[in-house]
Design a protein that fits this description.
This protein is an alpha+beta fold and 89 residues long. The chain contains 3 helices and 2 strands; from the N terminus they run H-E-E-H-H. Strands 1-2 form a two-stranded antiparallel sheet. A hairpin with a 2-residue loop joins strand 1 and strand 2. The protein starts with 22 loop residues before the first helix and ends in a 9-residue tail after the last helix.
């Protein structure tokens, strides 16, 4: 259907841990159930995402530390933390 309408699109299958999913869509993906499809707006249009499988995967403190540090360095994370990245009056 997209081809017949001459609309640009890309199809891809990816397997990503939660820490590699962009923060702006992570909350939407977190709410999805296996098999569910969601349309997520992007800067270039939209992504149609189907969650094929989800599984819990615990990390050790040693594995989690660099991921947490990288998360806390992101501007979106700092804005969401009280007292971080903001001056108090």
């Amino acid at each position: 259907m997209l081809k017949s309408q001459k609309l640009a699109f890309q199809a891809a299958i990816s397997n990503r841990p939660a820490e590699q999913i962009p923060l702006n869509i992570l909350s939407q993906v977190f709410e999805m159930r296996e098999g569910q499809i969601a349309v997520i707006p992007t800067s270039r249009g939209a992504s149609v995402v189907q969650l094929l499988q989800a599984q819990e995967a615990s990390l050790s403190e040693q594995q989690a530390t660099p991921i947490i540090e990288r998360y806390l360095r992101q501007p979106q994370a700092i804005r969401g933390c009280p007292g971080r990245g903001q001056e108090t009056a």
